[in-house]
Amino acid sequence: MRWFLVTGTQRLGDKADVRRSKIIIIGAGPAGGACALTLARDGAEVLVLDKSSYPRTKVCGSGLSPHALAMLDTLGLRETIAPLHIPMCGVMARGPGGTKVHLRGAKGAWVVPRVELDSTIIGEAVRHGATFQQETKVTTLVRDGAGQVRGVETSAGTLEADLVICANGSPSRFETDQSPRYGIRTIMGWWKGARLRAADEGEFIWDDRLDGYYAWLFPEPHGIVNIGLTIPEDSSQAKRLKALFQDLLDELFADELRHAEPVGKWMGHPATLAMKVGPVAESHALWCGEAARLVSPATVEGISFAMESGIVAAKAASRGLDPARGLSPAQQMRYRASLSMRMMPKFWAGEGFVRLMRSERARSWTTRLFNPQKLGERAAMVVGESN
Questions:
Q1: What letters, b where the CB count within 10 A reaches 16 and e where it falls short, cover 314-344?
Q2: Assigned CATH for 5-382
Q3: How many Å apart are CA 292 and CA 339, to the nearest integer?
Q4: Helices 329-358 and 303-318 meet at what angle, rounded to 10?
Q5: Of 14, 50, 198, 238, which sits most exposed with the smallest number of CB within 10 A?
């Protein structure tokens, strides 16, 4: 497998040669890993670049919803991942008014620490023929005189490619979507020895200070729990994120953490939520995962949508990518339309749920008219988190 390291004038290789298309994927998270694995199985020539050294810790609740588990089935990785998980068969959800709802589904969910999930997926991609170059930061998309992407500038030099797939998370320095951002901030930590109400149950707690969003607690393997919060970046409380997190730990999770010991430092991460699928395709570039803003407005969950969009991007690249011309306008439109049809119904439902949780009047009327347990189950279902 040849990858051209370019110094000086950008060269595009000998186009007279009959060869496989060269595809570079930026980012080795769930989107990049799923994309690389799918492409490698199809026989593509794939190079994955990531600025980190794997395995690496990632800020994430690490919950795999039923939708995420379905994506593992599509990738053929459920049995491979299974030894790394613990089951989360339900959640206790508490609204701002204090009403508790217990949600348990036949499918349930898994918790797999991202340090293991991401390394396993990209490792499978390498096993099937992809090349993985770690500790390589991509700084720029290289464009030719016509403005077409032809490769990437990295900390190690310039690399050419027939297609670049941006799967580098949120916020992506390479995104072309210029529409207004709806940003979310998270902060989380890990504890060992927490006392849980149920070993296989997580917690979601909506608190008025989180402006329509929630704090969570998820059990992890080896007696670890992760706890975090998510809040709109324009919320007044987001300006005191660490102090707010400490307040919520003291008020909401004191019983669970009374005899627990912290593991490592608190970490934070931004996200951009999707209200629509924006520009995600050019003739020689595609965007997927959080780099394409594919994050649920209701749960701020992105793992399942990252894997799904990575798979869809790989299929788009496998279906007739011309090394010289790239993807045709029709292929670009089909990719964007496919993402929209698969994901936007869940995102719209999630946006409606968030609007409900942000409105005190709507919450009040809803709890008067509907059984809270049934409402919680319905809300979980429409955002893809339950049966």
A1: bbbbbeebebeebbeeebbebbbebbeeebb
A2: 3.50.50.60
A3: 10
A4: 170
A5: 14
CA distance linking residue 90 with residue 201, whole number of Å:
5
State the residue for tokens 């959800």. 93
28 — pLDDT class (breaks 50, 70, 90)? very high
Instruction: Assess contact for 271 and 295: CB atoms under 8 A.
Output: yes
First to last CA, the chain: 45
Instruction: Note the pLDDT tens digit of each residue in 243-298.
Output: 999 999 999 999 999 999 999 999 998 888 877 898 999 999 999 999 999 998 87
Residue type, 287: W
- CB within 8 Å of 378: residues ≥ 6 apart: none
Q: What is the 3-state secondary structure (H, E, C) of 97-139?
A: CCCEEEEEEEEEEEECCHHHHHHHHHHHHHHCCCEEECCCCEE
Structure tokens at 382: 């429409």
Beta-carbon contacts of 29 under 8 Å, excluding residues fewer than 6 positions away, are 58, 114, 118, 167, 169, 289, 290, 306
Q: Could you give the 3-state DSSP secondary structure of residue 154? A: strand
CA distance 192 to 257: 9
CB neighbour list of residue 21: distance below 8 Å, 6 or more residues apart: 44, 45, 162, 163, 317, 321, 323
User: At residue 101, what is the residue type?
Assistant: V
Does the pTM of the predicted model rise above 0.85? Answer: yes
Instruction: Please name the residue that has the structure tokens 């010289």.
Output: 324
CA-closest candidate to residue 66, choices 327, 359, 307: 307
Q: How far apart are CA 210 and CA 187, in angstroms?
A: 12
Q: Which two tokens stand for residue 98?
A: 């204090």
Query: Helices 30-41 and 114-127 sit at what angle, rounded to 10 degrees?
Result: 20
Total residue count of the chain as it appears in this document: 387
Residue 254 one-letter amino acid: A
pLDDT of the residue at 41: 96
CA–CA gap between residue 120 and residue 310 (Å, rounded): 16
* pLDDT value at 8 more than 60: no
Write out the DSSP string of 164-191.
EEE---SS-TT----SPP-EEEEEEEEE
Report which residue type is found at 133.
Answer: Q
Contact predicate 31/307, CB 8 Å: yes
